[in-house]
Amino acid sequence: MVWPFKPRFQKQIARIEITGAIASATRKRVLEALKTVEERKFPALLLRIDSPGGTVGDSQEIYSALKRLRSKVKIVASFGNISASGGVYIGMGAEHIMANPGTITGSIGVILRGNNLERLLQKIGVSFKVIKSGPYKDILAFDRELTEPEQNILQELIDISYQQFVQTVADARSLGVETVRSFADGRIFTGQQALELGVIDRLGTEEDARRWACELVNLDPEKTPVYTLEERKPLFNRLVQGSIQASPALSAGIDWVEFEMKTSGLPLWLYRP
Predict the structure, then answer these.
(1) What is the DSSP letter of 21?
(2) Of these four, 49, 75, 122, 145, which has the most CB atoms within 10 Å of its CB?
(3) What DSSP state is assigned to residue 74?
(4) Is 137 considered catalytic here?
(5) Catalytic residue among 78, 83, 85, 161
(6) Angle at 223 between CA 226 and CA 2, to 5 degrees
């Protein structure tokens, strides 16, 4: 696609914000925004991340897209209140990373949770009859305990996902794999600690990150505007969202319940406090 105002965009820096749990909707929105950044030939991108992480595959796809874009666009990631687990993984797609001293980050690891309602179902007299093609087709079924072979299968899956995470951090930050393993045990740490560990490059605010992005492409930080790429929501969604603004906690709670239901039984790069 040919954009008619290329010079105007070349004198701005793009901004994409990633907030909340990372799932398929996040991936779709961010990939579309990254495509726009490339097509309009923005010289730099400010990537603001305020997320506890999320699904493994979606985080990997966003990371891969950022890594490809780096050959054409300077990318600076700014970690907000929290950029943990999958948020860290996505940040590895940026050439440069900045965080606040008190940012909560880290939580490098993998978690998978299922629900066991066996005792509850027994109390109310409910049972299930399962016909399956193989012994592991109903792995993580909520009406029974895991068997030992099932636990081994899932642990191997988690270990492989964890190795991928560790290797990505090691490659992106030019650290040894064993060095990354020494702090990639699921622990969280502050932005200041992340700097000491080599996970980020500098401490600073989003405004500091914006100025850094401008300097990287020889634009004046005092005069260069920021173009934020946001998803345009349908009118109905905007009206509904406006009607429930008085209860943001309720809205956030509903979002988390929906995320939990959709990702039950999936490996996650997610910080769970």
Answers:
(1) S
(2) 49
(3) E
(4) yes
(5) 85
(6) 50
